[in-house]
Amino acid sequence: MMTTMAILGCLFLAGIILMFQASKQKQANFQRKYELIVTLRHLIILCRKHRSATHSGLISSNNPKSALEKINSLLLEQSNHLISIAHFNNKPTYRILQMRLSKLSQDWSERTIARNQITHGAAIRHCMYSIDEIVMAWLAETDQSELCYQYHTNWQQIIDSMEALTQLRISIQDIDTKNGLLRTQYRCTAMRRKLNQLALISPLSIASPACSRAMHIMEEMADNTDYALSSNELYDLTSDISISITAVYDQMLSKLTTELYVPLPKMTTPIELQ
């Protein structure tokens, strides 16, 4: 009898230990995914700052060398951290991302404004798709089918809005020509449509004063051929739009990580995705 009780006690204890180890492993897995998302989110912010610095250098006589050196140092630091915390099987993927980020400063002064937008937009999307892979794997592990569907739908809206913003920014460089103006008017209409769709995800972000103003100006641009802004004014307008898209994306990510683990840390300053 005592032997049987002892065996049952040992089995019970072993079960408790296994459950504890499984829980500990699950916690470590969740923590790593969370840290990867936070780091990739930081890289998106740095890419945005890099785009802003190089754009300023392309449209003015300002030399962004000092700012770029600081940003490049942080990009290297954060991408190294990303590789260090990644699972062994995923490290090569993040090394490829690191190589792409290191090329942002190569010959930037020889790019056109449009090419600079495309280059940085591609790097930002690379980071976002990396986040998407982590999120989808996380959702699959936790069997959150309803949350997965909602996330995927919202994610597609974000990506489509970013693409519309990139196309609008590319069109601005030719706004002084008749065909260029027509393209910009068309892109303004497309951008407004995408923002209206984002309003279904995050009404407050799209209803912000800056975004509301941008929506009004784009409506004027699309409907009134005599309503003209300079290219610099239009680039400033797209910055306001980008901040609004960022707010929607960040809210979506934070809501998701809150459901799965813990909320994302708050950003100290507003940033743009592109």
What this model shows, in words?
It is a single chain. By secondary structure, the chain is an all-alpha fold. It has 2 domains: 114 residues, Up-down Bundle (Four Helix Bundle (Hemerythrin (Met), subunit A)), CATH 1.20.120; 125 residues. The longest helix has 58 residues. The radius of gyration is 23 Å and the shape is globular. It starts with a helix and ends in a 14-residue tail after the last helix. The C terminus is likely disordered.
Query: What is the CA-CA span between the terminal residues?
Result: 72 Å
Percent range for β-strand residues: under 5%
Q: Radius of gyration in whole Å, from Cα? A: 23 Å
Q: What is the β-strand count?
A: 0
Mean pLDDT metric = 87
Number of domains: 2
Could you estimate the helical fraction of the residues in percent?
over 70%
Helices, by number, come to: 9
Order of helices and strands: HHHHHHHHH
Oligomeric nature of the chains: single chain
Structural class: mainly alpha
Give a quick account of the main beta sheet: strands, pairing sense, barrel closure: none
Uncertain ranges: 269-274
Shape type: globular
Keywords for this entry:
single chain; 274 residues; mainly alpha; Four Helix Bundle (Hemerythrin (Met), subunit A); 2 domains; 80% helix; 0% strand; disordered C terminus
Task: Record the SSE blueprint.
Elements: H1 2-59, H2 65-85, H3 91-102, H4 113-142, H5 145-172, H6 178-198, H7 203-206, H8 209-223, H9 231-260
Summarize the structure.
The protein is mainly α. It is built from nine helices and no strands.
